[in-house]
Every structure is written in structure tokens, then in C-alpha cells.
Design brief:
Shape: globular
CATH superfamily of the largest domain: Bira Bifunctional Protein, Domain 2
CATH architecture of the largest domain: 2-Layer Sandwich
CATH topology of the largest domain: BirA Bifunctional Protein, domain 2
Distance between the termini: 83 Å
Number of helices: 23
Number of strands: 37
Structural class: alpha+beta
Oligomer: single chain
Largest sheet: 9 strands, mixed
Amino acid sequence: MNKTTNKIRQDFLKFFKEKGHVIIPSSSLIPHNDSTLLFTNAGMNQFKEIFLGEKKSHHPRVATVQRCLRTGGKHNDLENVGYTSKHHTFFEMLGNFSFGDYFKQKAIEYAWELLTSKKWFEIPKNKLWVSVYKDDHETYKIWNNIIKIPSERIIRIGDKNNIQYNSENFWQMGDSGPCGPCTEIFYDYENKIIDNPLDFLENKNGRFVEIWNIVFIEFNRISNTKIISLKNKSIDTGMGLERISAVLQNVYSNYNIDIFQELIQNISKFSPLNNLNNVSLQVIADHIRSCVYIIADNITPSNEHRGYVLRRIIRRALRHGHKIGIKKNFFYKLVSSVIQIMGKTSDFLKEKQEKIEEILKIEEMQFSYTLDKGLKILNNEIKKINNNILSGKTAFYLYDTFGFPIDLTADVCREKNIKIDYTEYELSKEKQKKQSNINKKFHKNYNDKIIINNTCIFEGYKKNITKSLVKYIFVKNKSVENIKKNENGIIFLDKTAFYGESGGQIGDIGYLYSEKSSFMVENTKKYGKTIGHIGKLISGEITVNDSIYSQINEDYRHSIQLNHSATHLLHAALRKILGKNISQKGSLVTNKYLRFDFSYFRTIETSQIQKIENVINMNIRNNVKIETQELSLEEAKKKNAIALFDNQYSSIVRVVFINNFSIELCGGTHAKRTGDIGLFKIISQSSIASGTKRIEAVTGQKAIDYLHKTDNYIKDISLILNCNIFDIKEKTKKLTIIIKNLEEKIIQIQNKENTKNIKKLLKNITDIKGTKFLANIFYNYEHKLLRTIVDKLKEELKNVIIILINIKDNRFTVIVGVTKNLLNQITAIRIIDMITNETKGKGGGRDEIAEGGGVYTKKLPIILNNIKSWINKKLHKK
């Protein structure tokens, strides 16, 4: 059979739907329920809690086509892309799952029927081999006795290094989590019996290709040495869509299947290449798919975490584009091809196409600027190598200076059979890290050393005062029975009105008190499921199990609430004015101001800022009621609630509604009505990283204070300029023209002065061994004019050493120039060092020209004489 990739995907889902499976859409590439994973790397990731028994499935049988990315950790295929025919960074995993329903026999029978029956994939049975875990005798018997596969085509796989469960046929999602023995189905491209099972294991010629892995989830790995049985046995399967497509389309390489061939043809249009089997075309085709789907899940290029993975993939693709002669920016132009080629599964990408293209275009433009230069340096260093090992310092220099990820350098070296000194690379990286941390002071978080197995009920949504019970007291990070007057500590209660800092909202302040004591709360933070009240006991004594009142500072909380509600309005207004593709990157809500970080790759114009303010203030004037509801996560999604889906949410979430204008998941505290905010004013907007913008704003009285301050400032300027405030712009324009004319006149006067000085200086030139030497000290002269004099004298005299010093306010600056013909013996930077070393000064520059400055001006005549003698000796050696 010869099916299209899109048809194979549809047939897989159709088959399992007929077998009673519910079709579940692919989850995001960002795992929502697993902090141990960087990206979703298998179809079972979204079902991990179900496999562990922590959550019940609504359906005992499901099937998915899951988007996966393998670029780090245990599953890292990035380095293999371009060097094998079967590996990808991004791929689609076809999977069927059983949660406590069918187990080994049924899973194997389903797989065999789909692969071999005429109705479905119709693969000849004699082309299929299977592997089983060595101790899994049950699975072996199913294949041999029920499916009737000959024993010579069933390979038992043992443990590596005699470590139990350390086997290719014992599947594990990561270092911890669900796991179990598995059976793998292989397609045989040669179709002949092998005499030795080792030939199968070695698979030297790539004869056998794994197309399906059926995992029997029986255990939970707790640690490297501990595995426990699960209560409910489950099935987790995975079949790479690209691999099974290669089989069904009768091609060996995944890159020869229909979707890749179409994509590769589109890429080749940007290159002078005629060979469509070029490795670089395959790398680019793989990487553009990854980039499109990563960015669609709101990840942007950065130097950290997931953003750095994205940046590495982009830069590796651009390097391969450079390698095959693509001279202009091209990568972002492939986005539309990916969306078109991927079929119905890419429908959700269409609304994000513009954002994806813009992010890739900017990243490509930024890196292309340094790519040529970095590659030239790398290739020059490789030419100098005698032992086939690239210095780790060079690799780090390329990373630090040109943004070359180490795997990009490794990619180039691999093509030339060069290895990298990774030990030296890591040492260089660590050295720089230590240097960058010198002078930095780190504030230790209170959470660092305190772990409490306690739950505190937050009653602050409705109450400002609660009567509570003291559960724990910590002083100097140690648990104590009581806290005394003037001691600083942290108090934990059974319930509280205080909001613990989280979700960008700062913690409350206030008091914990009883008839005999008073504790001033200076901050409130979360510690797991409990809340810590951080502060100082100002009177009496508090003991564990005391009954105590918690009372927040209401004015402080009120200001925070206004800013938090305004933050929600700002988020909604940004989406309305700048587009729905913006995504939140962080926020800070305090009693004084609010800060909001978000992804946006264009310049934000002043007119757009004003539109954002107008939209928000209109909502404030409408005095809309702010409501909250507790909903299931699915219900919240149906209402189009905005969430930071990088975060982990419980099954029941709190949703804040501001009419239909803003609907967000949020655990923070809010105003009762938008009118309470009073006024909203943006006070700054900036770019804090590539593609990441920051807006800071104030509300209420703080906004009025800001407007008053701005108004007073403008009036002060109008008084200085002696004009009406509305005439400031025109008056400033006129003054700018006057200043520019004056500056031009000053330059003319300075040039005349320079010409006079140059004529005087020419009379002071001395000859040292046939070389002209000039040293002169000026007083209260413009230092930048000295540079002009040096340049003109060097150009005119051709063979000269010049030292010009300017003394002002008991300090001096110096500039030294040396013509090129003398650099083998004398350099400007060496002379600068001689001057600054004797005068407690600093300096720097190049061999031809250098500058510096210092104190101890009285020493300068002696230093100049010493330099003259030194020059005489150096030239004598000539």
C-alpha cells in the first residue's frame, strides 16, 4: 500500500475508534503536569497521573496522535538529526492506551491487526519481527502461540551491564515515573532469516527499523534502585508516524516520505543545490517543523530553559542553510509550507502563523549578523589543529561571543572529524560564571530551609481578620516552641487572612495579635501548602498552640487589589490592541505599581500605548463587577479563560471574570468593581529581552500623583524656556537648530586652533634613530581634539611616535599614536601601560592607538623622558 502521511494518521485513529477508543487531542509540547520534563517526549506524558493512580481516567481506552519533541535529557535526538534516516527533533507519536482495561494480549492483537490486515496497513507478516524483555515469558508466548510468529523472529532482549531493568525492552519515561517491560515491532527491509540474534541487536546496516513499541505499564520507578508495582496495569503504545509512513510508502528514509519531500523541495528553492538528498536540506526540514510547533506553544528564543532549546534548533538550521549557499533570510518563509503540509493537525497553527514568522525572522536576522564571522573563526581554528581536537576555550569563545551553541560547533566539527575538548569547555564556562558572580549578593529565600507538612486555609478572599491557631514557629530557620519580644521569625497558622506571595502578587502585611502579644507581619510567603507570616514580635510572647488573631493592613491590601485587577485589564487590552498572539511572560503586583512582561516582537508605538490606556480606563469608568468562580479546568478552557499553561493547575481552578472583557485563571485578590481602580496610567514600556516587552503602570491615587508630577515637570520646562506649555515642542526645535549652528561654529574654531597647534607641535618634533618623536602636555584642552591631532600627524609624518597629554583638575588624560611601520618594536598600548603604571591610572586600546588617564601629574615629565630613553633602546635593537 502507498498511503499519504495524513491518511495514515487518519486511519490509525479510525481503527482504534472502531475498537472502542475515545480519540483525545494532542497535548501541548509543554508538559502541564510534570516538572521533570522539558518538553513532551512521548504520547503517554499527558496520562502520567493516570498511570500512577493519582487521577482517574474518564475513558478506559483512548488513542492519540501526540506532538513530541526530543532535544534533551534521556531522549535527545538533536545530534542525530542529519546523520540518520530515522531521527527527528519533532515528530508525531501514534498511540493507543488502556487504563486498567485490556492488557498484553489485546494490545498485541490490535497492533498486529492494524499492521497486517488488508483493510488497514497490509504489511506482509513475514516482514515483521518482534523483541521482548528477556523475563517477559507471557509476551513471548502471545507472539509465538497466539499470533503465530516463528520463534526465530522473536528476539529476547536482556539487561545492560547486568543491571536489572536496564534494558532496551524495559521502557521508562524518565529517571522516575511509570515504567514496565515492552515489546517492539520491527520492519525488516531485507526479509531473510538471521542465524545469530546478535546480528539483530547490532543492526549494522539499518536492516531492522522499530515501528511500534507496546509498553506494559506495571511499575512506578521511585529512584535508580527502587521500583514498585502499580495497582492498575495499563497499556502505553507508541508508533512514530514518520517511520510507519516510510514503511507504507516503500521508502527507507523518513525524509523521503511525502510531507518531507514537499517541504525539502520548498527549501531547495532558496538554495543553488540540485541534490534533494542533501543532509542540510533534511536538517532544515526537521528543524523548521520543531520551531513552528514550539513557538505555537508560546515559547520564544532565549538563553534559558525551553527558549534556549528553541534558539539552538533555529541556529543549527541557519548554519545548514549557510552551508548550502542560502545567502538571504529564508527560515521564516518556510512556516506557511509547514502549515500547509501538516494537514488538519495544523489548523491551530494558522491563527499563530504571523507571530511564528515574525519571531523566526527576528531571530534569523540577529544571528545571521554573527554567523559568518563565527564560522570563519571556527574554520580558521580548525585549520590550525594538529591532533583533531578543538580547544574548549575556542568552543566557549564562539558560544560566549557569537552565540554559537556548543552543539552547533560540534556539528561543524563532526563533519570534519574533529573532536571538542568538552572538559576545557566546561571549565571555561564555569570560570566565566564565577567571575560574573563576583560582587553579586544573593538574598536567601525564607523557603530555602523550611519544610512543613501543614495546610493553612486562606480566608482572605472574604475576611480581613481571622481567629487562628499557631501551628509552628521558626526563629533563624529552626522550629521553636515560642518567640519572644524583639525576635524575628516566621509564624504558621491553621488559617489566615494573609495572602502568601504567589502568582506575581506580593504578600500581605499586618499584625498577628492576642491580649498578651503583638507580632508585626512584614511579609507573607507560601511554603508548600501552608503560609508563613514573616516579621518581628514587638510585644509579649507567642507560643505554639496559642489562639491568635491575624489582621491584614487593609489599605495595603486594597492598593494591591486595585493593581491586580488592573493587570488583568492590561492583559486583555494588550490582546485587543496588539493581537491575541501575545503571551504573558511574568508579572509583579505590588501596592505601589504593577509590572507586566509579555512576548511581542514589534515596536510598541505611542499611539498604541494610548489606545491601551483608553480601553482600560473605559472599562474602569463602566464600573464593571469583578466576579470569581471555581470551575473545572475543562470548564475554564471552554469559557476561553487565559492561563499560564506552563504552570500546573489542579482539577478545580479559580477564574476571575471582568465581564466578558477579561477571563483569567487567578488565585490572587481583586477589587470588587473596576470603578474602584479609579485611573490607570502606563509609566514606562521597555524591551527586556529579544521579543519580550515590559509595561509598568500605576493606578488610583498613584496614577493621579504621577500625572501631577508630570504636569509640574512640563510647567517647569515651560518656565525655563519662557513659553506656553503647548509651545514647548516648537521652542525646543528652534533651540536645537541654534545649538547645532553654534556647534558647527565651535568645530570650525577648534579646527583652526588644531591647525595652529599642529604647526607648533611640528616644531617640537625630535628625531630618535631616524624615527620622529613628539611628546607634548596641554592644559584644559578638549581630549577628543587630541585624537584628531594624533590622526593628522600620523597621516602626515608616516614614521612617528606621538604622546599627547591633557591636564585638568589635577588629573590627566593621554593618547598615544604609533605608525604601522614601527609596531614590530613599539606599540601604543605598551607606552600607555608605562604611563599608567607609574600614575595609578588605567588605559587600553590597540597597537596603533591607545588612550588612558590617571593622577600624579607631577611625575609626567620624568615618565616622558624615561619613555624617550626606552624608545631609543628599542630602536637601537633594530
